[in-house]
Fold Cytochrome C.
Amino acid sequence: MSKFRNLFLASAAIAVLAVNWQPAPSLAQQGNPAVHAAGPRKIGLGREAHPDEVKAWDTDVRPDGQGLPPGKGSVKDGDELYQTLCAACHGEFGQSAGRWPMVAGGQGSLKNEGPEKTVGSFWPYASTTFDYIKRAMPYGNARSLSDDEIYAITAYLLNMNDIVKDDFVLTQKNFTSIKMPNVDGFYDDDRETTEKHFWKNEPCMTNCKAEPPKVLSRARTLDVTPDTKTGPKVD
Ligand code: HEC
């Protein structure tokens, strides 16, 4: 396409915008009760989302299986797909390659100083795995997998985490029979009751210091604030 044509298209687009665009009400207009009474002014932008558009975005899968598409996939097929599409980052056995996240292992490590949170050790529901892979993986090529491929890869991830056997076939029907090891590790925040003993006294919220505070030193004297003249040079 020639430069001239590009320019022409650009100016045509601006012309169309100029015809459709109406400025939002000014502050003065917004403050004017007459304008308010008439309700917000329509500026002719946007349209109702088409049902197919909503359907394309509405892909979430819930723990009770709601949202799962029809389909199935075996651990065996998932192994092949995973090695081709995922292992370069997540490691052949889900142990991670380089500094990419690990997706298997870590069971029993959550209370350690360095907990390893993976699909197997941390995630409470298998549905999150399906949902996540469907919307976000493979990294850089998201939404490229078919539903059967996602079933297979999810089955393989569960297998790497010792949750299903080698000959398992994951389907829409048997999906909710999967119990994740850490499902009971999630519960409602109960600190208000369980940690009540930490908070024996009512915290003081007003006039808490009897004496007014005294300034003992200043940041400038302590030399904590870089000074362009005498302090360290900031690039
Ligand atoms: C190019 C590298 C790359 C490839 C290939 C890749 N991933 Fe990922 N994956 C990532 C990164 C980066 C994250 C973390 C993304 C984030 O936290 O926003 C991630 C996160 C994940 C997670 C969540 C991990 C967690 O515990 O938070 C899962 C599950 C996962 N990927 C599965 C897959 C699967 C299955 C494939 C193959 C279909 C795949 N990934 C391919 C880079 C990759």
Observations:
- Residues 72 and 171 are 4 Å apart (CA to CA).
- The radius of gyration is 29 Å.
- The longest strand covers residues 72-74.
